[in-house]
Write a structure and sequence with these properties.
Radius of gyration: 19 Å
Structural class: alpha+beta
Shape: globular
Strand content: 15-25%
Helix content: 10-25%
Oligomer: single chain
Number of strands: 7
Largest sheet: 4 strands, antiparallel
Number of helices: 4
Strand order of the largest sheet: 4-5-6-7
Length: 223
C-alpha cells in the first residue's frame, strides 16, 4: 500500500472527524484491480496521532516495482483553501431546466457556462464530486442513507480559470484579469498536484455514512 492523502484535523477545521481521531489517511494498492472499477484498490483510515506517533517510522514511501506508475503519487503538500461549490451534474431532476434562463444570462454576462464552474475538478475535501461521467452517488449498504462526499482525489489541477488559486496565478496578468480568464504562473505550473494520471481527467471519490457505527465508507472511480 502506498500513502496518497494525509490530513490532520487542525488543517481542515470544517471536516468532522469521528470521536477519538484527528488524522485521516488514504492509502491504496497501486495495481490495476480486475473489478468493476478497474483501478487502484484504496483503503481509508481514521486514526489518532497520539496513538500512531509512537510507532511512526520516517522514510521514503514504498514504490512496488510491479505498480502502475499512474497510481504512484509524488510527494507534495496541501494548502487548504475554502471555497463555495454548487451542484453540477448532481442538480435535482428538473432544476436545471427551471434555471436555464439564468444560466444563459450568466454565460452572456460572464463568458462562462454554469456547469463549467459550479464544481471544482481538483482534489478536495467536502463539496460535490467533480464527476467526469454520470453521477454515481452511493447509498449506505447498512442503512440505505445517501452517503456524504468526503474526499476527491482527481487527476486535474487547474492551469487557469475560475478555480485557480490566487497564489498560483501569473503575476504578469495583474488584478484586472477576471478570475475565469486567469492563467497559472508558468514558473510553478509543473509542480502542481500529485502527478498521478487517473484515466483521462478522472478521479476517485470517497463517501462516508455518518449514521452507522464505525463511519463506513465506499468509493467511486471514473475517468
Amino acid at each position: 500500500m502506498v500513502p496518497v492523502v494525509q490530513l490532520y484535523a487542525r488543517d481542515v477545521p470544517g471536516l468532522d472527524f469521528p470521536a477519538g481521531t484527528d488524522l485521516l489517511q488514504i492509502l491504496w494498492c497501486p495495481l490495476v484491480h480486475q473489478d468493476d472499477q478497474y483501478a487502484a484498490g484504496p483503503r481509508l483510515l481514521w486514526r489518532s496521532t497520539e496513538q500512531t506517533a509512537a510507532g511512526a517510522v520516517a522514510g521514503e514511501p514504498p514504490r512496488p516495482h510491479t505498480a502502475e506508475e499512474d497510481y504512484l503519487p509524488r510527494a507534495c503538500a496541501v494548502s487548504p483553501t475554502a471555497a463555495v461549490e454548487y451542484p453540477n451534474w448532481d442538480l435535482p431532476e428538473g432544476l436545471a431546466d427551471l434555471l436555464g434562463e439564468r444560466f444563459e444570462a450568466m454565460e452572456a454576462e460572464r463568458g462562462y457556462d454554469y456547469f463549467a464552474v459550479a464544481t471544482t475538478q481538483q482534489s478536495k475535501v467536502g463539496g460535490y464530486p467533480g464527476w467526469t461521467q454520470q453521477p454515481d452517488w452511493p447509498d449506505c449498504a447498512g442503512c440505505g442513507t445517501r452517503m456524504e462526499h468526503l474526499v476527491s482525489i482527481t487527476a486535474t489541477e487547474p492551469g487557469g480559470g475560475r478555480w485557480l488559486p490566487l497564489d498560483d496565478r501569473d503575476p504578469r496578468g495583474g488584478a484586472a484579469v477576471p478570475s475565469w480568464l486567469a492563467e497559472a504562473d508558468p514558473a510553478v505550473l509543473d509542480t502542481f498536484g500529485h502527478g498521478m494520471c487517473l484515466g483521462d481527467l478522472g478521479g476517485m471519490y470517497f463517501f462516508v455514512c455518518r449514521v452507522c457505527p464505525g463511519t463506513p465508507y465506499t468509493h467511486r472511480y471514473d475517468c
